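Internal ticket #5521
Category: modeling
Description: The requester needs a full-assembly model to guide mutagenesis choices. All entity lines are attached below as received. Residue total reported by intake: 345.
Assigned to: D.W.
Attached entities:
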Amino acid sequence: MNYRFVIPLMATAFLEQTVVATARITTSYRALELGLSAVWLGAITAAFAILPMLFALRVGRAIDRGNDVRIAWLGAALEMAACAGFYLWDSLIGLFVSTAILGIGHLQLVITQQVLCTRRGGPGATERMLGNYMVANAVGQGVGPYIVGWLGGGARIPPTDALFLVCLATAVLTFAFSLLLRPGKPLPARASAKPLPVREIASIPGIRVIFFLSVVTWRPRISSWFTCRCSAPSGR
Amino acid sequence: VVYLPVLGAERALAADAVGMLLAVRAVASMLSRFLFARLSELMGRWRLLVSSTLGGAGCYIALAVPIPLAVMHVAIAGAGFALGIAVTSSIATLLSLASAEARGTANSL
């Protein structure tokens, strides 16, 4: 196994998921502190998922042009900027803009890392790489809420400034590890310079089934942070 | 995950019992990912994807039936394990279906 590639990839995945989990829970608490209504909290939450959707296809295209590692750097840099925004820009607009930037950075990192698992895993190693990558993800998603609980103690609202500072520090680490990912050999040249049209990708046999299954199986994960939010004040 | 605390409240489970169920799910889900590569080799991608999705669904149906807490632990462990596999499997299968130069775009879709 190529450890000089695998270790930065797994570390970036773990740290990035920690940043996102911590920041999103803390965002809810910051919204409470600011006295925002549920509607605004909903809008901020949606900004994480909906705005990045507008960029998703462009990110995918950029990866396929061979910029995979560069997109990972950019994603980590955006997460860093978002965390700086959370910490310094203490307002409704600040939360909204920072969440949107965090969502875009997260999207870039996740799509890139998954593709890197297949590109650099080598033949037959894709499954093992993806499995390990998903473990790193799961650990990061578990550490995030733990940090909130640890810093929050018995308080009804945990110290959001300190938590956003932890996010920023973790995001800086994420960025540092992402820089250890180096661009690999360019993909073999294709017959035509034109990218494969989306319609053609969607018509690959089996791919629509996967899209459906992805929506069904990812659903519980995507919304898991709500539970942290709902159960945190009642627990301990 | 979202509905488990609500289900717990409905069945008069203590908060720490719900927390324990969530923890069991998380551990099972992590464990399954360690085993993913081996299971995929053993069963093949599609069979693993379909059976893990159906298995997860079965475990969730079991949770919806009034069962004792001990059995709920088994069901939630099964759900965590199965969905941990299903999620990883859906990414692996997607990436294997798309050609190397379209993987990023397919994944972004």
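Resolution: model delivered.
Comment from assignee: Chain A touches chain B through 57 residues (CB under 8 Å).
Ticket closed.
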